[in-house]
Fold each of these.
Amino acid sequence: MSVGAGSGHIKAAEALEYTFAVDSRVTEVVNKDALQYTNKLFRDFYSTFYHSLVRSAPNFLGWWYKTSDEPWSTDTMRIMLDRLNTKPLVAFIQDFNPHIVVCTHFMPAGIISHLITTEQIQARLSIVVTDFYAHAMWLSRSFHRYFVAIEETRAHLHMLGIPQERVTVSGIPIHPIFQQAVDRTEARLTMGLHPDKPVLLLSAGALGMASTEFMVERLLNLNSDAQIVVVCGRNDTLKQRVISLVHKCSLNFRVLGYSDQMHTLMKLADIFIGKPGGVTASEVIACGLPMCVVTPIPGQEERNSDHLLEEGIAVKCHDLTTLPFKLEQLLQNPDKLISMKQNALRFAKPQASQIIVDTLLEDKLTHLSLSKHQRNALSMMARSQTSNNINKYY
């Protein structure tokens, strides 16, 4: 189960659906967006309103992300609102009566956790965190197992009181197609690209970033003879505007709309330019592709960016006016690009979905429920840890 608030949760669920479906041990697999079982107002709050804030008030999202990142500080009210608006979802889950539930978003995880706690279903609930860091909203009162991207997140959850054996460092699930080899020369020639000139892949995301036009304008000032593939997502208006911008330099640009061939585009490219969503970043690094991070959403994407920078996989363009400079620096330093590619492949976990499926189908652990007393104790410990860290500076 996922939630259509950003494409990453959906894509992670689709990768797991595919891997479960081809496994002979699985009788039936169903992949659902939980918002399909809610009312329009609730759907708009989770998806339309979220996308609106990403575009118009990203700093507010960053403030809310940090303010709400305290274990179980907001879950009582949030879960109550979720339960009031998801009665059809509860009915569907009870009717399907699954053995295993895997959630790639915290909203359905909270609903299913309640159903397990109240003994309305007997399923084992596992939660797949789709960013490199696990925000407090991912914490569940009753669960079977967590799957996270990196060891640091496992250590963080353990500090919050979740037993280490309940947390598997699987990586973020991506479609197995990203493991397939691609002939770079053939793929470039098929797209009408020169096989030996560098290729930059600029992704506007599924919905099309508002800053894409400005980035393309800046890329027109590149001094190097780079070829640039711009993927505009499902925003046809953006695609037409970009085509108009680059018409005089069309030999160096390829402008696409939504593409289901991102694995090929990532394999043929030399540098990826885009936002560091958890799933997108996992796809990029699985392809061994160095990243130039632009306009991360304050909060989860900024934290994803921090991890990518720490691992030497990415550079970050803090001001889009300097985008050509950042890219020229990389293109003129092939040794650094090779090092970034090697770091990406070392950090990558392209088999995450298979690890998750194998773990769940073979696991013998029962579900774990955290009492109110335990949750309060863990919340106090987290607040104390934060306070101690702050006091070090005063």
Amino acid sequence: MKHPLPVHPEHLCVLRLSALGDVCNLVPTVRALQRQWPGVRITWIIGKGEHSLLAGLSGVEFVVYDKASGLAGMRAIWRQLRGTRFDALLHMQQAVRASLLSLGLKARVRIGYDKARAKDKQHWFVQRHLAPHPRAHVLDSFMDFARLLGVEDTSLSWDLPIPEAAVAEARHLTGEAPYLLVSPCSSARLRNFRNWSAEGFAAVIEHAWRQYGLKTVLTGSHTPQEREMAERIRQLCQDEVVIDAIGATSLKGLLALIDRARVVIAPDSGPVHMANALDTPVVGLFATTNPERAGPYQWRDSVVNRYPDAVRTYLHKDPETLEWGQRVRHPDAMSLIRAEDVILRLDALLSEPKE
């Protein structure tokens, strides 16, 4: 017998710890739940960095888990929530860490992915599974949780909070002039291979300056990899063209920068989804991951998509035959993207002034 779903839930738990792009893609599901049941309590268990991005999201109570705290951090959350029994736990993180954390939470029903989408044995930790949804975008996979609960209005809404201090932080770097924002690096993970070349970025930056008089703001974290990439790009560009904001902003400050940008250009990383959430035009650079699954949802037509070419070139397969979500883990895959491809997308977006 299936565990019953709540008809009129009073308190829901969302379990999604990471990553920045994914939590941005999850917000429309939260908004859909709030529209269906105004006043519903939503407790979101979230990662530390992700919380700093979404802090202040209306109608949401955040419980922060720092993955560096390990099991001790999980126990602290269990103690914090030991008197709470949720009407439903929406287990949206397909990772062993999150599944272990879920064991100490009390819920009338635990909802997770269907077997085809579940990873790391997540289906062992839940009682109800989503209906199959082959070849779904990440955002649609999240929204499937709302659909299972009976939500009909799945229109997209974000309303991400950007405090005045973050706006001031952004204006301090850029002034009032319009600009292009480039976030050149994705997170440094083993065999990630999502980053494009400094030469390619420099060619696009110079084009934006010559054709539109737009300076470019470089953003990212202050890691050696990103610092090195920024230096290489700056060396290839005129001095007055680049505003170096690598490691210079908070995540809320980055949101404010993205909100005010004419266009954002970035590989598969948090900033493309942050731009999507803020309805800022974005050119996503994709070759190692499939943008139909993980691209900026509302701007997929503006993606430079070399994923099919990378699959044929480096995996020697037909893209249609691949498991959905398979990555091309080859260090040369992003070299299939040409500067002309990116400039073409940029020109198309700049022909429409930002409202």
Amino acid sequence: MRIYLDNAATTPIDPEVMKQMVQVMESQYGNPSSIHAHGREARSLVEKARKTVANLLHTSPAEIFFTSGGTEADNTAIRCGIIDHGLTHAITSKIEHHAVVHTLEALEKAGNIKLSFVDVDDKGEINYEHLEQLLKDNERSFVSLMHANNELGTLTDLERVGDLCEQYNALFHSDTVQTVGHYPHDLSKLKVHFMVCAAHKLHGPKGTGFLYINHKVKIKPMIYGGSQERNMRGGTENIYGIVGLAKALEMAYSDMASHQHHIQGLKTYMMEQLQQIPGIHFNGETAADKSLYTVLNVSFPEMEMADMLLFSLDIAGISASGGSACSSGTNIGSHVLTGIGANPGRPAVRFSFSKYNTREEIDFTIAKIREIVSSS
């Protein structure tokens, strides 16, 4: 028996998404940039997908740019947003995804910006008062704060951040990789300049995503080549991936409420069962209105051979991810857990759920965890 509880890393592709992608692979092999019939047919698929994505997010197709995934989208938004607008100050948190933190640190090292980190509490929630002070002291900053932390699940209030950014004339980028397709996003109202998606986080294919760029913001391409994506991203479009992305997002929106109810139920149930094990601690926010319903981060009691915990779960047939906080410069652990001051002596595991998980799988996982903890 194999149980997959690492959906924050990637999700299994939906059979309906796969079916549609295969149909396109078999029949639509033209280059979307070609002007002949085969090319025009391929182009129509790309633009139909773009319109689908835009309609679901309540924005214009002209504001959706397809990419190879979330990392490219984050890099494009950050590098081009800062450099092309001549910004010299950026604000982020120490628990952002490395696609964000490392990109900003590289820009600081190159002398492009001064980088400030907004305070976060022991749950991973940002200090909004500190954010406002940083914005007040550094008007026209670039702000990059994720919607939901990929390790903890703690949610950020995008509306509140957007209002602050508008007040202090800042550009706002949010890594929304973990929440697109899991929460509705109304870009006609949300005050965000850049937002990203990776299809493989919502049962779509790997290697494709999109970057939303608000029409009020103009940037130059990060990848030069052809005139694809309205001269914003060189390279022949990944037609199959783009079609799969649109189909996955469409399906996610059509069943979003029922999937959230099902997955939140699994998370709540697992928390209730884990709380019966002495020494268990949950990292990040766990309240339903403050936490991503697909993610649960658990610190286990200190134990010998703590680094074998994930291995033991894998041997038992359970796929999850995690790691302790860094205890020193030589110990490579989770920068997120370190950022919230988690105990470095306690092993942590992130369990992340999808629509395909069942309560029976949770029961099996809990039983195996009890065995592992009791034998340590």
Amino acid sequence: MKLNAVELREVALPLVSPFRTSLGTQTVRTALLVRVLSDEGEGWGECAAEDEPTYCPEYLAGAADVIKRFMLPALAPLDLEPAAVGPALRHLRGHPMAKAAVETAVLDCWLRARRTSLAAHLGGVRRRVRVGVSVGITETVDALLDTVDRHLTAGYARIKLKIEPGWDLEPVRAVRETFGAGVMLTVDANTAYQPGDLRHLAKLDAYGLALVEQPFAPDDLHAHAALAARMDTPVCLDESITSARDAAEAIRRGACSIINIKPGRVGGYLEARRIHDLAQANGVPVWCGGMLETGLGRAANLALASLPGFTLPGDISATERYYHRDITRPFVLDGGELPVPAEPGLGVLPEEADLQACTTAVETVSCTF
């Protein structure tokens, strides 16, 4: 498959409500969409980077720049297949989210031409997957309880609470006491704590959590291992895992017993599958994290979550959880589950009117370097 051109499109989708974590508050999701145009058709990918380098070192404008200036010239001369994208870009250090977006677009194009779905290509075994919902930090505990009640009424299979120092034990206690032991409840700190907080975090054991996610800095496996040894609650890693090699080291050191796989963070869906395979071989459950994706990224995440090792509900919420208007057909929650797209490639395409309505910038780059 030969690339003819690549379209880089920035879109801005207002969120249904502000989403606050320990890293900040979002009211609009700005996303970079990558559309490859080839001799076999077209394909779409989505870059998970955010406007600012807070969750990870990448940011949206930088991702667009590195794709245009360095990745496309490396790929343009090649006879491409999806598995060749990663090796062709290996000489470029970092930028996993930009690499993932390009690889996904190539995957989508290549699979559409071969009438194969992404789920089938990755080895998915489910037609529907259980999903959870991530609840941001709210102004009051009462507001948190109202939000959780709304999501449980909608049927979500798991509730994840964002926490930070000063917003942890009390809101978690209130949710558990209000909604009972039958609710699958997890917490996510997004690296907000320090190793000196071990004793405090261990108090979360009282609330029957399914896991505590990424309390410490990404490079501090030692602190995570110490917490895992101290707590009954399983420790899950997110930001610490950027590759299958990272996952192997974290498992070896006892720093986690569960892994959150975000395809953008690890460099794409093929590396995400490698992490899944490694974790499954070591008896470590995995689940698919979310980055407030549009329908394109949501469709691809559902394909990944259909693999057999994804035994915990992921952050792949229904469209209406985040957006009044998305760029694809909406994904609708049914009995705590979402359907895995079965059509070729990602299984969805942008709706032209919706895409145009949220587009803020677009550039087409010729691949005749």
